[in-house]
Write a structure and sequence with these properties.
The chain is an alpha/beta fold and 516 residues long. Helices cover 48% and strands 6% of the residues. The structure holds flavin-adenine dinucleotide, ligand DLZ and iron/sulfur cluster.
């Protein structure tokens, strides 16, 4: 009897995936494909490719153990066409199949390809909603429809009500929706943060690491410190480790940065959640339980749940809500090339050098490094948003366009003119100084505003505001800053402008070959 072909993509590694039957697996053939197109549409960090290939191979083995028939195509298999569509076509020739069933892809690029399959293969293709997200695309669009501002906080409250997470009936626990104010501490450099959990690579992972070294050795990033969970079991251990050791301190140091402390109290769970090894709702429920058991304070638990139930779901909704040309948004009309130090880390700006180092070593930087160091610099230096997007999509092991793009375009760069954020996340060196130990180790002086030794963020910050006055002065959250600018003498203002200009002239454009 003809079966149904069930392609499972690299970020769909969940046993409760909507396309996989939970009773009798005999009616389907699962197709999993390592393809060149996916591995190279940008030159992903080698750790991301290794994570995906190893996790895919482990997942295929688990499905086979459960009785599924799995057709797994490896990257170097003879005849591999290098694309999802090509591999589905070859699989249709190998199997007696009369239909295709697939869960919607995370990214438009892949959805576009899937949309052509019914016509091309003359078979019914069922595309199922991805039920692993807590809010469906339709539900998000219904929420967004007709609203003037799509603020995350409003969406988050809806999600709290919908799931009952941290709710006492109709009210938020402890009478407050948001404990963000408690989560803005800097960190004591002497803090003993827990070690990052690691997982012994098994034969599958070792084979994949060799493959990635051989085939993708020219991509940006190191592979030798690869330590991401590659199975649901390991991801569960990572969650246990976080809940026990780091969740209680998560909130307080959420926005802090320290030299050499690459992980602090962060969860390190985005890689596992994004490829399906962990379920986001289950992660939130686990954190809530820690609060209800008295094992973690409300400010930490609410702060953590807000990241997943609020930010993650909201970001995904925005990706599908916005037009397909969202990635081309450029509110400030920025055209400057990405500087080469985003790839080399070779800069005297210690904050940037640190953020690029951890990115290269671990395919990871924590949120404030991504937003307030690397993103903030790109914003105030006026870097072309497309080049910034490419960089973020390449360098992080958790990067997929649906999550990277809104975070870069909407949150870090304000390139959408405020669809997402109520004001640009622009800051001078003072913010970084307050939240980190970086400035004490930097050749630049954060207290100095202009001149060769001054922290570049200082002049760039004012120059950004000055350049974009027409676009920002009317913003009620940032407009008032112009009163401070106007109180400066013209001479002082020119010193800022000249300092920014002189610094920007020292930047060397990156070789675009790093990204594509
Ligand atoms: P924690 O800081 O411990 O947070 C817990 C969880 O909350 C994360 O695992 C993640 O699932 C979720 N989360 C928190 N903030 C966000 C957010 N803004 N968007 C989506 N999920 C969030 N996250 C990605 O998963 N992929 C990306 O490509 C990505 N690109 C980013 C680019 C920029 C410019 C910025 C500012 C943020 C980006 N983020 C991205 C969001 C965030 O920085 C990462 O999710 C986080 O650093 C992952 O580390 P963690 O698991 O230790 O997270
Ligand atoms: C990121 C990635 C990489 C590097 N390689 C593959 C692959 O070879 N096969 C696969 O199925 N998925 C891969 N992925 C993840 C996909 O890019 C991801 O599933 C899509 O972005 C979803 O839209
Ligand atoms: Fe970064 Fe400026 Fe501080 Fe140096 S002084 S670490 S460039 S913020």
């Amino acid at each position: 009897m003809a079966k149904t072909l069930v392609p499972v993509l690299g970020d769909q590694l969940s046993h409760d995936l909507a396309s996989l039957p939970d009773d009798d697996p005999s009616g389907c053939v699962v197709l999993m494909m390592e393809v060149w197109d996916e591995a190279t549409y940008v030159k992903h960090h080698p750790q991301k490719i290794a994570l995906l290939f190893s996790a895919m191979r482990h997942f295929a083995a688990e499905l086979e153990e459960k009785g599924f028939s799995v057709d797994y195509v490896q990257l170097d298999d003879e005849g591999n066409t290098g694309s999802f569509t090509g591999e589905v076509e070859r699989a249709l020739a190998r199997h007696d199949v009369d239909a295709i069933r697939i869960v919607e892809a995370g990214e438009r690029r892949v959805m576009d390809a899937i949309a052509g399959w019914e016509h091309r293969f003359a078979l019914p293709v069922t595309i199922l909603p991805d039920t692993r997200f807590i809010c469906s695309i339709d539900e998000f669009c219904a929420w967004a429809q007709g609203r003037s501002g799509l603020r995350m906080e409003n969406f988050y409250r809806e999600m709290r009500r919908k799931t009952g997470l941290l709710m006492d009936g109709e009210e938020p626990v402890e009478g407050r929706w948001n404990f963000d104010k408690e989560n803005r501490d800097s960190a004591d450099p002497d803090t003993d943060f827990p070690e990052r959990p690691t997982y012994e690579p098994d034969a599958i992972t070792k084979e994949v690491l060799d493959l990635v070294t051989e085939r993708f050795g020219d991509h940006f990033g190191d592979l030798d410190q690869f330590a991401w969970p590659v199975t649901a079991k390991e991801a569960q251990q990572a969650l246990d480790d976080f809940i026990d050791k780091r969740l209680p301190g998560f909130g307080a140091t959420q926005d802090a940065m320290l030299t050499g402390e690459d992980f602090m109290n962060h969860a390190l769970l985005s890689t596992s959640i994004n490829c399906g090894l962990l379920d986001p709702l289950a992660v939130c429920r686990r954190a809530e339980q820690a609060y209800r058991d008295g094992a973690a304070p409300i400010a930490a638990v609410e702060g953590f749940i807000r990241q997943i139930l609020g930010w993650r779901e909201y970001i995904r909704g925005i990706y599908w809500w916005e037009d397909r040309d969202y990635g081309a948004a450029n509110f400030f009309g920025n055209r400057r090339y990405l500087p080469d130090f985003y790839w080399t880390g070779e800069t005297d700006m210690h904050c940037i050098a640190e953020a690029v180092r951890t990115t290269r070593e671990h395919a990871y930087a924590h949120h404030i490094q991504r937003l307030m160091v690397l993103g903030n610099f790109a914003l105030i230096a006026g870097i072309d948003p497309r080049q910034v997007q490419d960089w973020y999509l390449v360098v992080y092991a958790d990067a997929y366009e649906w999550v990277e793009q809104p975070n870069v375009v909407g949150m870090a760069l304000y390139a959408d003119g405020g669809d997402m954020a109520s004001k640009p996340y622009c800051a001078s060196g003072n913010y970084i100084h307050k939240m980190s130990d970086y400035c004490g180790r930097c050749r630049y002086k954060v207290s100095q505003k202009t001149g060769e030794d001054a922290c570049p963020f200082n002049a760039l910050y004012w120059d950004f505001l000055d350049r974009n006055r027409d676009k920002l002065e009317g913003n009620h959250r940032i407009g008032r800053i112009y009163a401070t600018w106007d109180r400066m003498s013209e001479e002082r203002r020119n010193e800022y402008r000249d300092s920014a200009k002189a610094f920007l002239e020292t930047l060397t454009p990156a070789d675009e070959g790093w990204a594509r």
